TrEMBL record:
E.C. number(s) listed in UniProt: 3.6.3.28
Coiled-coil region list: none
Presence of the UniProt keyword Nucleotide-binding in the record: yes
InterPro entries, per the entry: ABC_AA/LPS_Transport (IPR051120), ABC_transporter-like_ATP-bd (IPR003439), ABC_transporter-like_CS (IPR017871), ABC_transptr_urea_ATP-bd_UrtD (IPR017781), BCA_ABC_TP_C (IPR032823), P-loop_NTPase (IPR027417)
GO cellular component: plasma membrane
Protein name, per record: Urea ABC transporter ATP-binding protein
Single GO molecular function: ATP hydrolysis activity
Record has Transport as a keyword: yes
Xref: PANTHER family: CONSERVED COMPONENT OF ABC TRANSPORTER FOR NATURAL AMINO ACIDS-RELATED (PTHR45772), HIGH-AFFINITY BRANCHED-CHAIN AMINO ACID TRANSPORT ATP-BINDING PROTEIN (PTHR45772:SF8)
Cited Pfam families: ABC_tran, BCA_ABC_TP_C
Keywords, comma-separated and alphabetical: ATP-binding, Hydrolase, Nucleotide-binding, Transport
Source organism (scientific name): Crinalium epipsammum PCC 9333
Entry-linked PROSITE patterns: ABC_TRANSPORTER_1, ABC_TRANSPORTER_2
Amino acid sequence: MNTKIVETENVTVSFDGFKALNHLTFSMDVGELRVVIGPNGAGKTTFLDVITGKVQPTEGRVLFKGKNTKKLAEHQIARLGIGRKFQTPRVYLNLTPRENLEITCNRRKDVFSSLFSSSSKDEKHKVIGLLETIGLSAKADIAAGLLSHGEKQRLEIGMLVGQSPDLLLVDEPVAGLTDEETYHIGELLLALAQSHSILVIEHDMEFVRQIARQVTVLHEGSVLCEGTIEEVQNDPRVIEVYLGQ
Ligand code: ADP
C-alpha cells in the first residue's frame, strides 16, 4: 500500500523562463498535517497549483495517492479526492450554513436541485455533525452573509470536509483574522487532522506554532529545509531567508 498521499518529484514550473518551482521534491504521508511556510514569492501558491493540476509542471512529476496526475485535468484531479480551500471564503452568502453544507455534502445534485429536494436522513445527520465540528451549530440557520470572516472560513472548511476529500489543501486560512478566530481555525484543523491528510500554507508563525508538527520551508521554488517547528525556526538558513526579506 502506498503510504504517501502526495509527492512531487523534481518538479519545475517555469513562467517565461522564470522558475516559480525549481526541482521541488516533496512528499507527505497519509494522515499527516503538514505546514508549508516560506517568504513571499517562495512558490507556495504555485506548489498548490501544481498539486491540483491548475498548473502543469515543466519538468518532473506529481503523484497523488501514488498516481501520476500528468494527463488529468484539474477537475479530474479534484475528483480523485483533493479539496482546496482558497484564501477568501467561498460560501453562498444568501444561504444558511446548514444549506451550504447540504449542497456540498451531496455533490450528486446541482445547487438548485439539492436546495429543492429533501436530504436523506444520513445527509442530515452528516450536516449536523459537521456544524458541530466547525462550531456553527448555534448559527446553523442564519444567512451565511451574517457570519464573521473566521466563521465563514470555518464554514468553507466544513463544506470541503463534507465532500470527504483524501487530502485537504488550505491556503492561508487565518489571513485577516483576529487572534481568537485564528485560534478557532487552528483547533478545527487539529481536530480534522485526526482523520484527514491536511496540507496548510501559512505566514502567521503564531498559528504555525499552534498547529504544526512537521514544517516544510520553501525558498526560491525549492525545499530549503524540513523538520519540527523548533528545528526549522533555529535553522540558520531559515533565519537568513526571513531576515533577508
Ligand atoms: P508565494 O505563494 O510563495 O508568494 P507564488 O507561488 O505565488 O509564491 O509565486 C512564486 C513566483 O512565481 C513569484 O515570483 C511570482 O511572481 C511568480 N509567478 C507565479 N505565478 C506566475 C505566473 N502565472 N506568471 C509569471 N510568474 C508567476
